Amino acid sequence: MDHTVKAFDEDITHIRGLIAEMGGLAELAISEALSALVTGDEELAKQVIERDKKLDTLEAEVDAMAVRVLALRAPMADDLREIVAALKISGVVERIGDYAKNIAKRIDRIEGRSTFEPLTLLPAMGELAAEMVHDVLTAFAARDPIMAREVIERDEKVDAFYDSIFRNVVSHMVENPKTISSAAQLLFVARNIERIGDHATNVAEMVHYSATGDYPKDIER
Amino acid sequence: MDHTVKAFDEDITHIRGLIAEMGGLAELAISEALSALVTGDEELAKQVIERDKKLDTLEAEVDAMAVRVLALRAPMADDLREIVAALKISGVVERIGDYAKNIAKRIDRIEGRSTFEPLTLLPAMGELAAEMVHDVLTAFAARDPIMAREVIERDEKVDAFYDSIFRNVVSHMVENPKTISSAAQLLFVARNIERIGDHATNVAEMVHYSATGDYPKDIER
């Protein structure tokens, strides 16, 4: 019995490590994609796009490991919920990486970046979202539902940021019709960051579920 | 043993039924959201938004049922992979519903809808994406990796549609700067549909995994 418990603990520690690695890569992708966007650094953008494959591989590794643990250890109760949460969370973190990759792919569709005031607002918004990703994975590692809730509440700030940037970009478009195509890219970037916040919120709900057995009820999904 | 096998079959049939129900709701949400968008039917849009809660509930039901099956039946090999796929697929279908809900929420932000040519292109794009959702869940129910691959290949058409609508909307913006704010909503709608296609592709990859034990390798995720 002790042997099985120890083996399970090792497995779950391994899975947590893989998810932490995914989270670190996703955070890095967000910040580097936005940095490349602002500076127009196409080389950095390429790196972000290339590195995204690692997230796909890690997701597949988490899934394979989770299936192995389920098959070999038949975990129960809290342990089972944690494996289920890991399976779902790996999928969402992979999606978060996709959003960052998508931002990186837009770098070369933006012209005259020095005249775009909204461009300067995006990194701060991205930082907020990247912090949510960081903190929600810390909450997962610590099985901390209170921290998870706190991440969910922070999503409002990202949404407010998004609304403000949306208005700013639309005004810019109205005043500079020639830049509309480039400015539309910024709308999508802001939207991608907003979705990253949503996905971090989604993970926070799963962490809450994993830690308590319930989804947080009173927060709109 | 026979008893256990039969009980497992009943459980997996139940889970498949729940996922089929989720898929049906997601398809309906896509087509009704686009119909409401084109006609400006706010009542229908409200229904789409309200009905989305049902998808959240069904996802939680799939998760609870999957956890129960894992705990009670300790399935192996193919059966285990199918439960794992169900857990991941329920999360993605819930997300697809969110995109449809998001489209429905934009209805009242569009002014002068009768003059928007791009508006008339969106339902056809939505239909393509809704068909992908339908077919990928049929592939899941039938454990059919070939059908899953076929869905993955169809995503290119949705992407091409998106590119064409993007250009169309941007031209419209350039020619009619006063409509930029409304037209930006259409860009997001097109983007949401494009993401629905991506998510259907994501599900198709999981169906492939569930049916064969491998993710399809040669298709970019």
From TrEMBL, chains A, B:
Statement: the UniProt record of this protein carries the keyword Transport: yes
Domain PhoU: start-end pairs: 19-107, 124-207
Subcellular location per the Swiss-Prot or TrEMBL entry: Cytoplasm
Keyword Translocase appears in the UniProt entry: no
InterPro entries: PhoU, PhoU-like_sf, PhoU_dom
Sorted UniProt keywords: Cytoplasm, Phosphate transport, Transport
Functional description taken from the UniProt entry: Plays a role in the regulation of phosphate uptake.
Sequence similarity: Belongs to the PhoU family.
Complex formation: Homodimer.
PANTHER family: PHOSPHATE-SPECIFIC TRANSPORT SYSTEM ACCESSORY PROTEIN PHOU (PTHR42930)
Protein name: Phosphate-specific transport system accessory protein PhoU
Gene it is expressed from: phoU
